[in-house]
Write a structure and sequence with these properties.
CATH topology of the largest domain: MetI-like fold
CATH class of the largest domain: Mainly Alpha
Number of domains: 2
Distance between the termini: 65 Å
Strand order of the largest sheet: 1-2
Shape: flat
Number of helices: 15
Helix content: over 70%
CATH superfamily of the largest domain: MetI-like
Structural class: mainly alpha
Length: 282
């Protein structure tokens, strides 16, 4: 290459050198992309086997038929026709969407507030870790155990009503066997999925960026709305995404806390699966 470039004019020599450098950069970029895909391959395999393959199998089962409690591998649209012609399906869908959206709004507001407080007003790293640990601590126990503990605490003869009656106040039925109780329980159960990601997103924001906004005359609300919230949006979206997945699959809360007053699709799926109607449940 040096002999070739030495026999060229300065202008052509510059072009040849630039072309060689560009080719080297493209080669290095391809190598980096290849390594990135190789590093990503195990996660893709696990995701495909653990998540995508079961979903494909569920869709496949929905086209099967049942004879008593026995599944028959056929291509039958009877289960789909039964679902889409049943008015109950549309009522359950609307009830589920309404409940999920309500809980997501509450979880997003509370999680964003708590995460912002931890990131901006709690300056001690140890105290931040302690508060996050307290938020995560209930998840060390079983989900059903956390739900069941609501009954002796908020039931008609629970601790809260016992204290209210002791001081001469009427009993309160707000937190058990109604829609409000179910929404409140779901919010308290899934808000932690938003607190953590929002906290980490806000903690990674460069303090100089926030200080620059304040020095330019922006109010704390304007700084939060135009600087901090857009930068923390990724954590908020991740937290809401995980909460949405759990909400659509939650049927125990509706039964144990809501008392069946606000049924959801997950509850209907559980009942169909329990009665052996697997294609309809799928």
């Amino acid at each position: 290459m040096s002999t070739l470039t030495g026999s060229l004019s300065p202008g052509l020599e510059t072009v040849v050198v630039a072309a060689g450098e560009g080719e080297n950069e493209r080669l290095m970029e391809r190598q980096r992309n290849r390594r990135s895909w190789l590093l990503l391959l195990p996660a893709l395999v696990v995701t495909t086997v653990a998540a995508i393959a079961p979903l494909i199998f569920i869709v496949w089962v929905s086209f099967w038929s049942t004879e008593g409690l026995q599944l028959t591998r056929t291509f039958d649209l009877a289960a789909w026709g039964r679902v889409f012609t049943d008015p109950t399906f549309y009522r359950l869908t609307w009830s589920t969407l309404r409940t999920v959206l309500t809980v997501l709004v509450l979880v997003g507001l509370l999680g964003l507030t708590a995460g912002y407080y931890l990131a901006r007003y709690v300056t001690s790293r140890r105290l931040q870790a302690l508060l996050l640990m307290l938020a995560i601590l209930p998840f060390w126990t079983s989900y059903l155990i956390r739900i069941i503990t609501w009954q002796p605490l908020f039931g008609n003869s629970g601790v809260i009503n016992f204290l209210l009656v002791s001081v001469g106040l009427p009993k309160m039925e707000l937190f058990l066997y109604n829609q409000r109780a179910m929404i409140f329980a779901m919010t308290s159960l899934y808000v932690v999925f938003v607190i953590g990601p929002v906290f980490w997103s806000l903690s990674r924001i460069d303090p100089d960026v926030v200080a620059a906004s304040r020095m330019l005359g922006a109010s704390p609300w304007t700084t939060f709305r135009t600087v901090e919230l857009p930068l923390a949006r990724g954590g908020l979206v991740v937290g809401l995404f995980f909460a949405t997945i759990f909400l659509f699959g939650d049927y125990a809360t509706g039964r144990l806390i809501g008392g069946g007053t606000n049924p959801m699709l997950s509850d209907a799926i559980s009942q169909y699966a329990g009665s052996g109607q697997w294609p309809v449940a799928a």
